[in-house]
Amino acid sequence: MWDERYKGKDYLFGTEPAAFVAREAGVLAPGSRVLCLADGEGRNSVHLAGLGHRVTAMEPSGVALDKARALAGARGVVVEFRQSGVETWDWSRPFDAALGVFIQFAPPALRAAIHAGIARAVVPGGLVLLHGYAPRQIANGTGGPRAVENLYTLDQLRADFPGWEVLRAADYDAEIHEGTGHAGRSALVDFIARKLGAPA
């Protein structure tokens, strides 16, 4: 399924980072170890690597990874690209931050497992950064899944990261133009939180 989705010559979501990533990247400490979840064609991981972070990008589609490697090469940055789905990722690997942008292919049970994996992988003092669609996005028809249960609410995200310090929690509408995959008026959710405890 994912190879089919990414097989076109063009980059489905463009080659520039999501507006959320461009706007919020400053929250990351210099040289952070960042895990990019289901990173697709590399637009977000390549951007963060260009800012000097040590980035690992997981993605199940080999087609998407080929395009991501080409983008990294064109930008002159290094990203550790790994072909893996979230279901089989080794969450014992430590990271300073985990980023998930529009990773809303996951129904509730899998989403809960992903968030538990993030909580395991992120070191004390580290961050989770999530950006996706709110349930009312279905009425917009400008991107995202058709399954309302896959979409984010702030209450659900707070519940999935209990005890974390919430740095940003926003539910808002905006125009986005990120390739052909995400284009037009969109109902969006941003969530950034810090895992409490002293950094290792």
UniProtKB/TrEMBL annotation:
Position of the signal peptide: none
Record-linked InterPro entries: Methyltransf_25, SAM-dependent_MTases_sf
Superkingdom, natural source: Bacteria
Pfam families in the cross-refs: Methyltransf_25
Entries under SUPFAM superfamilies matching the protein: S-adenosyl-L-methionine-dependent methyltransferases
GO biological process: methylation
UniProt domain Methyltransferase: residue ranges: 34-126
GO molecular function term, any single one: methyltransferase activity
Name listed for the protein in its UniProt record: Methyltransferase domain-containing protein
Organism: Tabrizicola oligotrophica
